[in-house]
Automatic annotation (TrEMBL):
This is Bifunctional UDP-N-acetylglucosamine 2-epimerase/N-acetylmannosamine kinase. Zn(2+) binds at residues 584, 594, 596, 601. GO terms for biological process: UDP-N-acetylglucosamine metabolic process. An N-acyl-D-mannosamine binds at residues 492, 504, 532, 581, 584, 603. The active site is at 532. SUPFAM superfamilies: Actin-like ATPase domain, UDP-Glycosyltransferase/glycogen phosphorylase. It catalyses: an N-acyl-D-mannosamine + ATP = an N-acyl-D-mannosamine 6-phosphate + ADP + H(+); UDP-N-acetyl-alpha-D-glucosamine + H2O = aldehydo-N-acetyl-D-mannosamine + UDP + H(+). Its EC number is 2.7.1.60, 3.2.1.183. In the C-terminal section; belongs to the ROK (NagC/XylR) family. In the N-terminal section; belongs to the UDP-N-acetylglucosamine 2-epimerase family. It comes from the Eukaryota. GO terms for cellular component: cytosol.
C-alpha cells in the first residue's frame, strides 16, 4: 500500500512538472439543479480543500435560479462557495419546446463565460438538458470535460443525453462496474475512465449518526415518528408526458388512500412539470393535513428524511441510487429509471391503470427495513476523483481517441455494400477454355461465361477484356458489386506484379505477359493474378476443406498436375514464384518423359495427358476396349476411356492407373516429409480415382509421424474460379494475402 501511495505521489509530481511547476489546474464546476449539486458538492469541497493543486470556479444556471424551484443557488452560497457566474437559461413553459429553447439560450450565454474563465477542465454531471448545453459549449471551445455518472442506463430522453455527453467528454467518472463496461463498449478509452463510486455516497454513509428527529419534525410535524412517513418525489417523463401525468394522479390517489404523513417534493423543470403541479393543486395536496408539499429540501436534510422514512415513492434516481445506502424501502414508478442497477429495497411498478396497484405496493413496502446497499459507492469517491484530476496531463492532445472494436469481415456501413452483394470477377485461363464468372462473397457462382481459349496472345487478351466488360455490366443487373478481378492461369506467375513469367505448353504465346495493367485500365478495378494451383489452394482456404486449417496442401489432378501449399494460413510462393510445382516432383529416375523436359515427374504418370497417352498406346495395340465398351471412329481416345476400361476389368488399364496412383502417392509422401501439412486435399476430375491409392502409399512408405495426415477429396465444384475470386475477396475484406 505504501509503495502504491508513493508511486501515485511520484506520478502526480511528474504531471505537475509536465503542466508547469506553478500551474494549478483551473477547474470549472457548473451546476444546474438541486439534484446535480448533491453529487457535485462533495467534489467541490475536495477541490476547495487543496488550493495548492486547484483553482475552483463555480457557474450556476438552470433551475437553481428559479423561485418556483426554491432558488436553490442559495444553498451553494450557504456552503461558502463563491459563485463566479449566474446564468438565467430556463425558458418558462415546461414543455418540449421550452426545453429546446433553454438549451439554445444556454449555448448563447456560455461562450462568453468560458472565454472569461478559460478553465483547464469543466466538470459536468449527469443527463440533464442543461448539462448537454454545458458539454457542447466546452467541447466546441476546446475545453476538457470530466463527466460524472456516465455509462448508466435509465429510461426517457435522459439516456440519450447522457450518452451524448459521454461522446463529448474527455474523461469519465462512473459509479458502478456495469457503467464502466458500458463506457468501454461505447469505445471510450479505458485509461480515461475512473470507477470511483457516486460522490454523494461520501456524505450518505456518514450521515445517519447526526441528529435527525429535529429535521423530521421541521418538515413533517411534531407528531411524526421515524419509519412512519413517506417521501414522494416524482418527475415528468419527457418522452410520454401524458402517461406520466396520469401515473402521478394515481400515485397521489394511492397516497391519500394510504393515509400516512407524506412529504411531497415539487417535480423538476422538465416538460410536463407544470401540469404535474396543477394536478397537485387540483387534488388539494398543499392543504391536505397528511401532506407537506415543498419546492426544495437541502441535501443534508433530505438525506436524513429518506434514511428514516417508512418508504420513498416516485421515479427519481435518488430512490434507486442514494436511498439504497440506508435500506429504506422504495417504490419506483414507471419507466424513468428502467435499466438502473438497484438493491433489493426497490419494488418496481412499471405501469398502473388504477391506484390499486400502487396502493398494494405501498402496503408491501411501507415500514420494512432492507440491508444497506453499496452498489453505487463505498464513501471514498472524492479522494479517487481528486487523484484522477491531478493525473491529467494538459500537454496530452485534446482530440479524443475512440477505441473501436475490430470490424468483422464482410461488414460495411457503405450503402452500396448493404444493398448489393460483394462479389469478384474470376477469370480461369485453361488449356482449352477461357472462363469468366461473377462470384459472391459466399462462393456462389452468380453468372458464368465460357469461350474457347484463342491460340494467340492478342486474341486471348482481347477476349479476356471483352468477357470481363460484359460480366461487369451484367453484375449491375444481378445486384452484385464487383470489388476486383482475380485471374487463375497455368504457368509461373509473379503475383506481386500481375505478370505471367512463363507458361506451360498447353497455353501458347503466354510468357512475360502483363495481365494486371490492361485489365485494370479497362475496368478501373484492382486486378490479382496467380498460378492455377495456388488458386485452388486459396479456394480451399476460403470455401473448402482448408478453411481454418493452418497447414495444408492442395493437389490438382487434371490435364496436368499442380497444387498449392498453405503454411501458417498463408500461401507459399517461393523466391522465384516456383513453389508448389508439385506435378514436377520426380518419383522415378527413368520414368516417362514429362512436358517440362524432365523424366519421371508425377505429371508424366498421373496427369490426364499421361493417362491419355497410355490409353492411346493400348488402343493402338487393340488392348483398350473390353466387353461393354464402344468407340466411334472419329472419337478421340482420352483418359476417360482408360478409366472406363479399368472399371470393366481391363487388367492393363488397371495396372496403368495403379502405377499412376502410386506415383502420385510417392509425390505426396515427399510433400509430407518436406512441409509436414496436417491435411492433403486432392482436387480435379481424377481425385476420386486416386484417393485410395494415395492413402495406401502413405501407409506403406511414409514415416510414422506423418501417417496420420488426413487425405480428402475436394468438395468444390470449380476450384479454379473460386480461387481466382478468393484472390479478390480475401484482400478487399482485409485478409492478408
Amino acid at each position: 500500500e505504501v509503495y502504491f501511495k508513493n508511486l501515485s505521489k511520484q506520478k502526480q509530481k511528474e504531471v505537475m512538472e509536465k503542466n508547469g511547476n506553478n500551474h494549478k489546474l483551473r477547474v470549472c464546476v457548473a451546476t444546474c439543479n438541486r439534484a446535480d449539486y448533491s453529487k457535485l458538492a462533495p467534489i467541490m469541497f475536495g477541490i476547495k480543500a487543496e488550493p495548492q493543486f486547484f483553482e475552483l470556479d463555480v457557474v450556476v444556471l438552470g433551475s437553481h435560479l428559479i423561485d418556483d424551484y426554491g432558488n436553490t443557488y442559495r444553498m451553494i452560497e450557504q456552503d461558502d462557495f463563491d459563485i463566479h457566474t449566474r446564468l438565467h437559461t430556463i425558458v418558462r413553459g415546461e414543455d418540449e419546446a421550452a426545453m429546446v429553447e433553454s438549451v439554445g439560450l444556454a449555448l448563447v450565454k456560455l461562450p462568453d463565460v468560458l472565454n472569461r474563465l478559460k478553465p483547464d477542465i469543466m466538470i459536468v454531471h449527469g443527463d440533464r438538458f442543461d448539462a448537454l448545453a454545458l458539454a457542447t459549449s466546452a467541447a466546441l471551445m476546446n475545453i476538457r470535460i470530466l463527466h460524472i455518472e456516465g455509462g448508466e442506463v435509465s429510461g426517457t430522453i435522459d439516456d440519450s443525453i447522457r450518452h451524448a455527453i459521454t461522446k463529448l467528454a474527455h474523461y469519465h467518472v462512473c459509479c458502478t462496474r456495469s457503467a464502466e463496461q458500458h463506457l468501454i463498449a461505447m469505445c471510450e478509452d479505458h485509461d480515461r475512465i475512473l470507477l470511483a463510486g457516486c460522490p454523494s455516497y461520501d456524505k450518505l454513509l456518514s450521515a445517519k449518526n447526526k441528529d435527525y428527529m429535529s429535521i423530521i419534525r421541521m418538515w413533517l410535524g411534531e407528531d411524526v415518528k421515524t419509519r412512519d412517513y413517506i417521501v414522494a418525489l416524482q418527475h415528468p417523463v419527457t418522452t410520454d408526458i401524458k402517461h406520466s401525468i396520469k401515473m402521478f394522479e394515481l400515485t397521489l390517489d394511492a397516497l391519500i388512500s394510504f393515509n400516512k404523513r407524506t412529504l411531497v417534493l415539487f417535480p423538476n423543470v422538465d416538460a410536463g412539470g407544470k401540469e404535474m403541479v396543477r394536478v397537485m393543486r387540483k387534488k388539494g395536496i398543499e392543504h391536505h393535513p397528511n401532506f407537506r408539499a415543498v419546492k426544495h429540501v437541502p441535501f443534508d436534510q433530505f438525506i436524513q428524511l429518506v434514511a428514516h422514512a417508512g418508504c420513498m415513492i416516485g421515479n427519481s434516481s435518488c430512490g434507486v441510487r442514494e436511498v439504497g445506502a440506508f435500506g429504506t424501502p422504495v417504490i419506483n414508478l414507471g419507466t424513468r429509471q428502467t435499466g438502473r442497477e438497484t438493491g433489493e429495497n426497490v419494488l418496481h411498478v412499471r405501469d398502473a391503470d388504477t391506484q390499486d396497484k400502487i396502493l398494494h405496493a405501498l402496503q408491501l413496502q411501507f415500514g420494512k427495513q432492507y440491508p444497506c446497499s453499496k452498489i453505487y459507492g463505498d464513501g471514498n469517491a472524492v479522494p479517487r476523483i481528486l487523484k484522477f484530476l491531478k493525473s491529467i496531463d494538459l500537454k496530452e492532445p485534446l482530440q479524443k481517441k475512440f477505441c473501436f472494436p475490430p470490424v468483422k469481415d464482410n461488414i460495411s456501413q457503405d450503402i452500396d455494400h448493404i444493398l448489393e452483394t460483394q462479389s469478384a470477377l474470376a477469370v480461369d485461363l485453361g488449356g482449352t477454355n477461357l472462363r469468366v464468372a461473377i462470384v459472391s462473397m459466399k462462393g456462389e457462382i452468380v453468372k458464368k461465361y465460357t469461350q474457347l481459349n484463342p491460340k494467340t496472345y492478342e486474341d486471348r487478351l482481347a477476349l479476356i477484356l471483352k468477357m470481363c466488360v460484359e460480366a461487369a455490366s451484367e453484375a449491375v443487373n444481378v445486384n452484385c458489386r464487383i470489388l476486383g478481378v482475380g485471374i487463375s492461369t497455368g504457368g509461373r506467375v509473379n503475383p506481386r506484379e500481375g505478370i505471367v513469367l512463363h507458361s506451360t505448353k498447353l497455353i501458347q504465346e503466354w510468357s512475360s505477359v502483363d495481365l494486371r495493367t490492361p485489365i485494370s485500365d479497362a475496368l478501373h478495378l484492382p486486378v490479382w493474378v496467380d498460378n492455377d494451383g495456388n488458386c485452388a489452394a486459396l479456394a480451399e482456404r476460403k470455401f473448402g476443406h482448408g478453411k481454418g486449417i493452418e497447414n495444408f496442401v492442395t493437389l490438382i489432378t487434371g490435364t496436368g498436375i499442380g497444387g498449392g501449399i498453405v503454411h501458417q494460413h498463408e500461401l507459399i510462393h517461393g523466391s522465384s514464384f516456383c513453389a508448389a510445382e508439385l506435378g514436377h516432383i520426380v518419383v522415378s529416375l527413368d520414368g516417362p518423359e514429362c512436358l517440362c523436359g524432365s523424366q519421371g515427374c508425377i505429371e508424366a504418370y498421373a496427369s490426364g495427358i499421361a493417362l491419355q497417352r497410355e490409353a492411346k498406346k493400348l488402343h493402338d495395340d487393340d488392348l483398350l476396349l473390353v466387353e461393354g465398351m464402344s468407340m466411334k471412329e472419329e472419337e478421340i481416345v482420352s483418359a476417360a476411356h482408360l478409366i472406363q476400361a479399368a472399371k470393366l476389368g481391363n487388367t492393363k488399364a488397371e495396372s496403368i492407373l495403379r502405377t499412376a496412383g502410386t506415383a502420385l502417392g510417392l509425390g505426396v509422401v515427399n510433400i509430407l516429409h518436406t512441409v509436414n501439412p496436417s491435411l492433403v486435399i486432392l482436387s480435379g476430375v481424377l481425385a476420386n480415382h486416386y484417393v485410395n491409392a494415395v492413402k495406401d502409399v502413405i501407409n506403406r512408405q511414409a514415416l510414422s509421424s506423418v501417417k496420420t495426415v488426413d487425405v480428402v477429396v475436394s468438395n468444390l465444384a470449380d476450384p479454379a474460379l473460386l480461387g481466382a475470386a478468393s484472390l479478390v475477396l480475401d484482400y478487399t475484406t482485409r485478409r492478408i494475402y
